[in-house]
Amino acid sequence: MNFKNNKGQALVEYVLIIVLISAIVVGIVSLLGGYLTDKITESTCSLVNEEYVKGKKPGDGYCKEKSLDKPREEEKEEEPKKVEEPKEEETQNEEE
Predict the structure, then answer these.
(1) Cα gap 55→37, rounded to integer Å
(2) Who's near 44: CB < 8 A, 6+ residues apart?
(3) Stated pTM of the model
């Protein structure tokens, strides 16, 4: 028998290649998924100005608010300088 129509065979081959590639990608992502999640979380923490805390296993990292023990330079408020007013005795001496 001589088959003249090979289009169906090519389609099946392409589907098998796509399935194989998809299985490989799913395997890689499942192995490295926790590490990828940690990297995304770490970059997100830096964007929202929070501290990244590493988890016990890959994928368990999270963001927490930075401690405010040390105030930043721009948050420091300068205390107004006190101007000493002359005492009444000094002003009376100057008038004489």
Answers:
(1) 11
(2) 63
(3) 0.46
